[in-house]
Amino acid sequence: MNELGTSLETSALSQAIKDATWVIPLLQSIHIVTIGVVFVSSLMIALRVLGRMRADEPFAVVWARFAPWMWYGLGVMVVTGVFLVIGEPVREFTAFSFWLKMTLLAIAVVTTFVFGRTFAPRGGAASAAAGVASGAGAGVAAGAGAGALYAGASGAAPVTGRSGAAVAAGVSVADPAGAAATEFSPGAKAVAVGIIVVWLAIIFLGRAIAYDVEVWGSLSLHN
Amino acid sequence: MSLVSLVQSIQDSGVAEWMRTSVKAMPIVESIHVLAAATVFGTIFIVDLRLLGFPNLRRPFTRVSDELLKLTWGAFFTALVTGVLMFAANANTYYENTAFRFKMAALLLAGLNMAIFQLVTFRTVGNWNTDVKPPSAARVAGVLSILVWVSVIFFARWIGFTKGYHFEAPPTDVNFSF
After folding, report:
1. Domain map of chain A by residue range?
2. What value of ipTM does the predicted structure carry?
3. Is residue B46 in a domain?
4. Could you list the residue range(s) of the whole structural domain that residue B73 is in?
């Protein structure tokens, strides 16, 4: 890996990034600004699952509000991250923190994607949002939206009582007519907490790359 | 006591010495600082976007801002404490660093912008809290807030590339312990 880093370091692009002394600080700044957007978007979704944030909105609405910022932000982070690696390949490839960060990033992305697909399938947000927008007196529409959301299907689900599909999806609809208050299963809540813990670790490791020997000692590939 | 001697006494303090000589203190404190700063920006960004009418005007502005308030201030306090620790370790060079001074100025601007919004523009929030486009003063405050906080992060990152050290960092003759 050290050899790959060394050969990449001699490439024209790597040299150009290093020679322009403002490029790496600029890329790192964009990377950190975007972390703020991605992390907090992920945090808002997780807190909604835990019922600590926007509990008055259906999960699909919260997902639709924050997930695009999370995914597009991740795109920006990948682009800036790739250029940062090209600019300083040996620094990154020989850092234990870097590889741990990449592993955790893959786990966070896959888990979040599967989580979103499970609890906020495509089309669910629009119907749930329509339910919220319709306001008081439109409980039936809202209920139908929630039914479709938690059933993961386009058809309307029964409005009264706890939706079997909702329970199957790990969600119980406490207020089906309002389609607002939903309670997630302990498993889903645990996954939400896990995603946030992983994100905290990813951000920590991002900075720890600069201190690999100090943080990891003999585990650092710098040795 | 002059500002320069105050900065020097901060650098000479015990906690500053600990930050310089502990092998793991600086990476941990810096990481927490980045995490806290990212959270401050991310949460404020949500409120600023709502001022600009994004994604829509349905959710009351006061609800959007109130629900994030604890998170923002908690993260800001964390960033402040970790920032002071980082400053203490290397106070002389931070004090002389242009990017650091710009960052402090940007933080002051952010505070000023927030104060003006809170004391003046926010007084009419009842008129535009829900389903109404916020007044131009509120939208300007939102744009300014985004620009200023992005500047804070940019200047902060620039400090790391420009400040250098007034001491051997990390000192090679110290028996490191956390």
Report:
1. 2-122+193-219, 124-184
2. 0.91
3. yes
4. 3-162
B105 Cβ contact partners less than 8 Å away, ≥ 6 residues apart = none
Q: Contact B23/A214, CB-based, under 8 Å?
A: yes
Q: What is the pLDDT of residues A120-138, one digit of tens each?
A: 877 666 666 655 555 433 3
CB A220 within 8 A of CB A94: yes
Whether the predicted pLDDT of A160 surpasses 60: no
Closest-CA residue of B relative to A36 is B38
Segment 109-138 of chain B within 8 Å of chain A by CB:
none
Q: Nearest Cα to A187, choosing from A175, A169, A160?
A: A169
Does B113 reside within a domain?
yes
pTM of the model: 0.84
Asked if residue B167 belongs to a domain, the reply is no
Residues of B in contact with A26 (CB under 8 A): 154
Torsion of CA B63, B67, B69, B74, to 10 degrees: 180
Please report residues of A whose CB lies closer than 8 A to that of B160: 25
Asked whether residue B171 is domain-assigned, the answer is no
**Model pLDDT for residues B109-124, shown as the tens digit of each residue:** 999 999 999 999 999 9
How many domains does chain B fold into?
A: 1
Min mean pLDDT across A5-14, A35-44, A104-113, B169-178 is at B169-178
